[in-house]
Amino acid sequence: xxxxxxxxxxxxxxxxxxxxxxxxxxxxxxxxxxxxxxxxxxxxxxxxxxxxxxxxxxxxxxxxxxxxxxxxxxxxxxxxxxxxxxxxxxxxxxxxxxxxxxxxxxxxxxxxxxxxxxxxxxxxxxxxxxxxxxxxxxxxxxxxxxxxxxxxxxxxxxxxxxxxxxxxxxxxxxxxxxxxxxxxxxxxxxxxxxxxxxxxxxxxxxxxxxxxxxxxxxxxxxxxxxxxx
Length: 229
Hints:
By secondary structure, the protein is α/β, with parallel strands linked by helices. It is built from nine helices and seven strands, in the order E-H-H-H-E-E-E-E-H-E-E-H-H-H-H-H. The longest helix has 20 residues, at about 160-180. The radius of gyration is 20 Å and the shape is globular.
């Protein structure tokens, strides 16, 4: 990283910050070790994003212009990716847009399957998108939206200083782990691990801190024998 920010060959996928906030080990398995496994939830998520990510669609709805599959890049975070949807609304205190008259406020909208999460992983992702747009357009974005497919409604996300610092800290940690080429050990959380599509690849019981490998294997063998009996 230079004084001007991260170089092109240092940029990481922005979408990974959601995985990182959920579980650093999950992120490293995907982005450092290049492992992945789809389940029903991730397959549904891909389908929802395919419907949102039409790069050739831009539509006007009164004072609002909706664009899809918008390229994103932040040199300060070292992330790049694509926003599902960005809405531009006419505003006297907004920013100028290439090819459009007037001034416009900017609002990223991220599409998600299911319901709002119990943690901030989705908020962290859409905040990272907003930071990219701020750098690219030279503006300040105060709020973004998450659209959840199951309730089919939007959830407004205030882009607070605390949330922005969470994004910045996560990005720094992601780059440090990626440069080191290491995969963090698992921190087992029964609820999170049960719903993780990478559970079988991760083997959280075997890799978590302070776990005894011989003890884990012994318990696994005993469980298998008991089940067979």
